[in-house]
Design brief:
mainly beta, about 230 residues, single chain, 8-stranded antiparallel β-sheet, 3-stranded antiparallel β-sheet, about 0% helix
Length: about 230
């Protein structure tokens, strides 16, 4: 299942006065000890919830509820970055079919969940301009998880046998869920020239969830160079 997310795009190339000797790439060896090492946390959260109902009248109705809770936390220690991914998605579909002339009804209830938790070696790149403007590029690989589906189908009768015979069925399935979550964001901000080497901020924006509903993407970061 592919969820569309959106990130912060970098500004067009502008007044870059960077020291080419050091664009601190935290996932690698970083800058020399004279430049100091970055440490801190970057947290990326995607949350969404939707409810859709189709059908009308006495025949058929279908209600689908979906929820997403996707959190990526990147811990940076001395220019080394590790991303902790915690992904959870759930879909609850319930449909009711009423058959004319009212001999029986079929109710189907299916819950599908996907989850994955893992730590991944990640890449964080900090670019600084002499005027204090900065960009932080964050890349966290996706993780593998598991899809689980539990379904129940129940037939209820308004007439006795042989016209109608009640029944019920249950089904349980699991499958691998590769490529869950991950992150690819570019953050930007302004550091006070000559002040402490602290990059800190929060960004919030909407993203498309479940085709037409909006979810909330929140990113916070706090990096300190020592």
């Amino acid at each position: 299942m592919k969820l569309r997310t959106s990130g912060y795009r970098s500004r067009p190339a502008r007044r870059w006065l960077l020291s080419l000797a050091c664009l601190a790439t935290l996932a690698l060896s970083g800058c020399s000890s004279a430049d100091g090492a970055w440490s801190g946390t970057i947290r990326i959260s995607r949350v969404g919830e939707s409810t859709q109902t189709t059908g009308a009248g006495t025949c058929c109705t279908e209600t689908t509820q979906r929820t997403l809770n996707d959190v990526v936390t990147v811990e940076v220690v001395n220019n080394q970055a590790t991303g902790q991914v915690s992904y959870s998605f759930a879909e609850h579909l319930k449909s009711v079919q009423a058959y004319d002339p009212g001999t029986h009804n079929i109710t189907m209830d299916t819950v599908t969940t996907g989850s994955g938790v893992d730590s991944k070696r990640s890449r964080v790149t900090v670019s600084l301009a002499k005027d204090g403007y900065y960009e932080i590029a964050v890349e966290v690989p996706p993780v593998d998880g598991t899809w689980t589906q539990d379904g129940t189908s129940v037939l209820t009768c308004n007439y006795p046998p042989p016209t109608c015979s009640p029944s019920s069925n249950q089904d349980h399935k699991t499958a691998p869920a590769p490529g869950l979550s991950g992150a690819g964001e570019v953050l930007e901000g302004q550091m006070t020239p000559g002040g402490p080497a602290i990059l800190s901020g929060t960004k919030t924006e909407q993203f498309v969830f479940d085709g037409e509903h909006e979810g909330t993407l929140t990113i916070s970061w706090n990096l300190v160079r020592k």
